[in-house]
Write a structure and sequence with these properties.
This protein has helices at about 1-20, 40-45, and strands at about 75-80, 90-95, 105-115, 120-125, 130-135, 140-150, 155-175, 180-200, 205-215, 220, 225, 230-240, 250-260, 270-275, 280-290, 295-305, 310-320, 325-335. It is mainly beta.
C-alpha cells in the first residue's frame, strides 16, 4: 500500500509539474464547459472539495478519489444548472460499490449543455448586407467512466476517462451550381483524463487531497490549435467541531480550502464552509479569489433516510456580476 501511495503522489506531481512548466494561455483554452461546476452541494461552498469525502456519485465531477468512500451499493445524482446567457446544463452520475467497495467503486457520468438557438447569416450584396440562412443550436457533452479505491484506511486514489465533444452547429461555406447553400458541421471531440488522491491524515478529521482535471493532448479546430482547461488543485478540509467538545451528530461544521492552478487563469484560492444540523439540514457559503464576475456562493440542503434509500436535495445560488444569477439544483439517491 505504501508503494501505491508513493507512485500515485509521484504521478500527480509529474502532471502538476507539466502544467506548471507550460506557458499561461489566459482565456485561450477551449471547451470551457468542462470548467463549470455542476453539483449544487459542492458549488454551495465554492467547489472547495478536493479533500472532502463527498460520499456521492457527484465526486466524479471533482476529485474522483473521493468517490472511494461510497459504501452503498448504488449512488445516483442528477441535477440542473441555469447558467448565464440562458445556457442550460444537465448532469447525472451513477456509482456502484459492489461487495461494500472492497474492489473499488465504479462510476459513469454525463453532462450535456444546451446553448440555445441562434440566427445564422452570411454576407450578401443586398440592402441589409446579409441574408438569413436559418437557425443553429450549439451543444456540448461529456461522457465519463470513473474508478476509485481505498488502498488503506487513510489513502484513496481515483481516475476518470471522458469523451468530450462540442458542436457549434452548421455554417455556410459555399454555394453549389444551383445556388443552394453548402453547409459544414462544426463539431470536435476529444478524450480527457482526470486523476485524484485523498489522504486522511489521522489527525481528527483533517483530510488532504490533490486532483488534476482535463488532461489531454492539444486539439486543432479548423486552422487554430487549443488545449482543454487543464487544472491542478490541492486542498485541506476538516470538521471544525473536532476542536470542541460537541456532539458531531448534532452539529457539524466542515471547513475547506483549495488552491487551484488553472491553465488559462491566474492561481486561485477557494474557501468554503458547510454547517449541518442533526445530519439533516445544511447551509453553505463559499468564496473564491481572484475571479472576474463570480466570487461568492451560497446554498442549502436536506438529507433524509427513507427506509432503504437515502435522499438528498441541494440548492446553490451564485451571483454573476453583469450576468443573471446562477441557480443550481441537485438530487442525490443512495440505496
Amino acid at each position: 500500500m505504501k508503494n501505491y501511495t508513493i507512485i500515485s503522489i509521484i504521478i500527480l506531481g509529474l502532471l502538476a509539474h507539466t502544467l506548471q512548466a507550460q506557458d499561461k494561455k489566459l482565456a485561450q483554452t477551449g471547451m470551457k464547459f468542462l470548467s463549470v461546476s455542476t453539483d449544487a452541494r459542492t458549488t454551495g461552498f465554492s467547489e472547495a472539495v478536493t479533500s472532502v469525502d463527498l460520499s456521492t456519485a457527484s465526486a466524479m465531477f471533482y476529485n474522483p478519489a473521493t468517490m472511494a468512500s461510497i459504501k452503498e451499493f448504488t449512488s445516483l445524482t442528477v441535477g440542473n444548472v441555469s447558467w448565464i446567457a440562458d445556457i442550460n446544463y444537465l448532469h447525472s452520475a451513477i456509482a456502484f460499490a459492489p461487495w461494500d467497495g472492497d474492489y473499488g467503486v465504479f462510476g459513469v457520468s454525463f453532462v450535456s449543455v444546451d446553448y440555445g438557438e441562434f440566427m445564422g447569416t452570411v454576407v450578401a450584396s443586398n440592402e441589409q448586407g446579409y441574408i438569413d440562412v436559418g437557425t443553429f443550436s450549439p451543444t456540448a457533452y461529456a461522457l465519463g467512466f470513473s474508478y476509485a479505491r481505498e488502498l488503506s484506511l487513510k489513502f484513496a486514489v481515483g481516475g476518470s476517462i471522458r469523451f468530450v465533444k462540442q458542436n457549434l452547429g452548421s455554417s455556410v461555406i459555399d454555394k453549389d451550381d444551383n445556388g443552394n447553400l453548402i453547409q459544414e458541421d462544426n463539431g470536435l471531440g476529444a478524450v480527457a483524463f482526470d486523476f485524484g488522491v485523498l489522504y486522511r491524515t489521522g489527525y481528527k478529521s483533517l483530510n488532504f487531497g490533490m486532483s488534476i482535471k482535463n488532461f489531454s493532448t492539444e486539439l486543432k479546430y479548423k486552422e487554430e490549435t487549443f488545449q482543454l482547461p487543464l487544472t491542478f488543485r490541492i486542498g485541506l478540509s476538516m470538521d471544525a467541531m473536532d476542536l470542541f467538545n460537541i456532539d458531531k451528530n448534532t452539529h457539524s461544521l466542515l471547513v475547506s480550502i483549495d488552491a487551484a492552478h488553472p491553465r488559462d487563469f491566474s492561481e486561485q484560492i477557494y474557501l468554503g464552509a458547510e454547517y449541518t444540523f442533526i445530519n439533516t439540514f445544511s447551509v453553505r457559503a463559499g468564496f473564491v479569489s481572484p475571479a472576474d464576475e463570480r466570487n461568492f456562493t451560497a446554498g442549502f440542503g436536506i438529507k433524509r433516510n427513507l427506509g432503504s434509500m437515502n435522499l438528498g436535495i441541494d440548492y446553490a445560488y451564485q451571483p454573476f456580476g453583469i450576468f443573471n444569477n446562477v441557480h443550481r439544483f441537485s438530487f442525490n439517491f443512495a440505496f
